Amino acid sequence: MSDLNNPCRFCSPREVTRRNELAYCERDRFPASPGHSLVMPLRHCANFFDLTSEEISACMELLTQERAAIDEEFGPDGYNVGVNVNTAGGQSIFHVHIHLIPRYAGDSQNPKGGVRQVIPGKAHYPSNS
Fold it and tell me: pTM for this one?
């Protein structure tokens, strides 16, 4: 899939942990935590919002399967699931990839707010409970 005109690393699946007709999964080469995995469409596509509904469904299927495998192998206490879209959203590899990041009790001093922590000062907010 990768060629000289498109040297995208994710267009050449490498250490695949699972795969279906439209997507594949591999462990992150620079994991944020043990088990950190990426799910990617096989088709080169830079923006998550340009995926077809079939590709999104295929990615979600693998995300669920990989979560089950990580549960069994690592036994995490929680997860973050995220997609970086465009440079302002933190995207540095312009092939859609969905991060599945296992979380472990004590891995963060205060995990409240989860993915909201990507913007400093926005993670902690009053709860309505």
Answer: 0.90
